[in-house]
Amino acid sequence: MSDRSRSPYRSTRRTTGGGGARNAPPQPKDPARRAAYDVLRAVHDRDAYANLLLPATLRERGISGRDAALATELTYGALRRQGTYDAILDACVDRSLKSVDSEVLPVLRLGAHQLLSTNIPPHAAVSATVDLARRVIGHHRSRFANAVLRKVAARDLAAWLEVVAPDRTADPLGHLAVVHSHPRWIVAALAAALGEDPAAGPGALDETERLLAAHNERPQVTLVAKPGRAAVADLVAGGATAARYSPYAAYLTEGDPAALREVRQRRAAVQDEASQLVALALSRVPVEGSDARWLDACAGPGGKAGLLAGLAGKREARLLVAEVQPARAGLVAQAVERSVRDAGRAVVADSTRPAWRDGAFDRVLVDAPCTGLGALRRRPESRWRRTPETAAGLAPLQRALLDRALDAARPGGVVAYVTCSPHLPETAGIVAAVLADRADAEPLRAAEYLPEVPDAAAGPDGAYAQFWPHRHGTDAMFLALLRRR
Question: According to its UniProt record, which protein family does this protein belong to (predicted)?
Fold first, then answer.
């Protein structure tokens, strides 16, 4: 269980990598590790998101090539494996890890990742990390980091897990939490969503373990060709590969998406394949009578809106795209700009207190705010920020959005309720709570509108669709389709 990464780095010698910004500020010694450290500090101190901050940091500092690759590996590796590394580090300090200064912890986690999950030689990993420590936390505390990391280097990852992970039989949830670096409550929530019972004996959490392992793998980049503005063939010509499920998707296995002309021109965008498919499923449900007015009720930052606008325009329908936050509404407006027949129109609006009249729309999408537990591959820091209380706090908003979306749909119209989370209180629980109070809505079998996707049916009688990283290679998106009677 060494879990070695595929990092090409076998020494700390730095190469220029080429292509740096002409007017970039002078780079510090070891710019890759310094960039990774600064991003980890911002994630911890300012709740920054690494997937947004790291690319900006690399651009601003002119870091490219092998240094950029190393910074990316260190940042995401330390975040994904934080729970595992913290358990090991806690065994290597002479006091509780919680008492270690917040500016010291990123140094220790970066060192632990290099020692336990990359091919960097141990002496080089310790030396380079301690040198970084001298520069960012001072000479005195760098000696503490040196002592701790030398203890970490005494065992490989598999040996450390034998020491720090709870027994698999006595505490299966705790074992998986440490081995696969997730909070215990998330392990329990994902097991419940998969229908697995920790008390059922050996092998009871096998699929849960595969899901947790998938969360720690680097996800591939998926692109969407906006209908009427680009085609998958255009993306394939630029080096991508046609996707398995979505007819509008392509995988980019390497390179910068912004290097593709279609992405630069906003005719294509980065969007997970499951995110595309839930929007596509909404468009596939037959409706009798009018099919001219569509609504995306909480659209920011606009990925699904961009696809829906193209689909609506090809049918001569109009899409109203609502987002309550003005800044995100601006992103949505960019996403639907120049859609087919200029079908998309973005507005700043609160869909729990809508300005539109009831029964105004033929199709409604509710992509509800959620814990984001379905996107832990892309936002690994989210697993350390979310709590059971987070989900409970979101439930009233999720119920209100779905309730108002059903009001907005005309009789015979259809509503798609979507979350980027498989957590049952956010998915089937919300749908059941809303339907219990209404006699004018009924669930449709969502998976029937996604025939190209195997094993997507979920929930009672397979009424819903649930995507999984370990099954489908996508984010864990949930979809319920409801028809207004």
Answer: Belongs to the class I-like SAM-binding methyltransferase superfamily. RsmB/NOP family.
